[in-house]
Design brief:
This protein is an alpha+beta fold. Helix content is 21%, strand content 16%. Strands 1-2 form a two-stranded antiparallel ribbon.
């Protein structure tokens, strides 16, 4: 989907080290959609919603 410009990746958000992590945050997981750690792509609700949107079309 990236290669044919169907989607654009969101901007990378820097993690604020001074803030407490949400309950779902997983230090060792990396999301390839958001390109940051905290969750993996299998747990990425934003990515799931995007895929569902394409399925529904």
């Amino acid at each position: 989907m990236l290669e044919v410009h169907m989607i654009e990746l969101p901007p990378i958000r820097n993690i604020d080290e001074s803030q407490e992590r949400p309950f779902w945050y997983r230090e060792n997981d990396f999301c390839h959609y958001h390109r940051t750690k905290g969750h993996d792509i299998e747990r990425c609700q934003t990515f799931k919603n995007l895929v569902q949107k394409f399925i529904d079309k």
